[in-house]
Specification:
With about 100 residues, this protein is mainly alpha-helical. It has 4 helices and 2 strands. Helix 1 packs across helix 4 and helix 2 packs across helix 4.
Length: about 100
Amino acid sequence: MLADPRAGEEEEEPCFHVGGRDLSRAETLELLPAAMGSLAQDDRIWLLSYYRQEQSCEGLAREHGVSVDACKVRLHRARRRLAEILHREARARLAAR
């Protein structure tokens, strides 16, 4: 059996699919700052607190005076809105090429 010539090379897996094309993680990360800037401030705060500051839902719920379930719902909705913005940004970038 012959060895795969790509063995040992890391192939970047697609991170985001738009317009029949897969964007790499690096391409998606390029779009992220503008997409985060386009989010409503509340969505941005929830996402940054959870992902960048690594706060738990329990901690965020306590801090914001909501239930843990409400925290999970807010994070879910914020992620969905971020994905919609990323999709629009990616589509615009691909159309400009």
